Amino acid sequence: EEKNGQKASEAKEVKLYGQIPPVEKMDESLSTLVNCEKLSLSTNCIERIANLNSLKNLRILSLGRNNIKNLNGLEAVGDTLEELWISYNFIEKLRGIRVMKKLKVLYMSNNLVKDWGKAFLSVPQLPTGYGESSLKERFGADVLSLFHNLVGVFTFVVAAEFARLAELPLLEDLVFVGNPLQEKYASDQKNNWIEEATKRVPKLKKLDGECGA
């Protein structure tokens, strides 16, 4: 307010990046930003996403170059957020990303996502004719293995971490370069990173800056 003479409650864009001393917490003062559409908090020392409940108009959130380890707290803006810039943090798991119903752009390069992840799904019986090969045909390479225990319950292991991004109905632009998962596949000639990633998130229009992914 002192810099531009505008009340915080009226501002549509709020820039709090690279503060000295750095911002360490997203505290309750954010609740005054009721008209904010773009909030920039990059290049600080924030460890946790919090106190976004009052930002009912927020469309763009910039949190790059902080110390954030997970995506908890985003549910407060899940109905409005269209762009999340969260590169150069310490995020390994994508749990909680599904609440971003309107997210179109996700920039999360240089984080710590290192594998596709695993999930164990159990069913009392498989449809007629279904075995490990047919499951792989239906679900792709994400089906890792199939078990049949003594009481007749089938359990199959599927990759689920990166594939969580497919739960975002509007996601079209993703920057993921610099994560261990991307670096592993980019250096492996047998597995093309773009092919593997778009297989799991087929709605992407742009991946790591390349159109037509």
TrEMBL record:
GO terms under biological process: outer dynein arm assembly
Source organism, top-level taxon: Eukaryota
Main localization of the protein described in the UniProt heading: cytoplasm
SUPFAM superfamilies: L domain-like (SSF52058)
InterPro entries named in the record: Leu-rich_rpt, Leu-rich_rpt_4, LRR_dom_sf
Gene Ontology CC: axoneme; dynein complex; microtubule
Subcellular location: Cytoplasm, Cytoskeleton, Cilium axoneme
Keyword annotations: Cell projection, Cytoplasm, Cytoskeleton, Dynein, Leucine-rich repeat, Microtubule, Motor protein, Repeat
GO molecular function, one term: alpha-tubulin binding
One of the Pfam families matching this protein, by short name: LRR_4
Homology family: Belongs to the dynein light chain LC1-type family.
PANTHER family noted in UniProt: DYNEIN AXONEMAL LIGHT CHAIN 1 (PTHR15454:SF33), NISCHARIN RELATED (PTHR15454)
Entry protein name: Dynein axonemal light chain 1
Organism per entry: Callipepla squamata
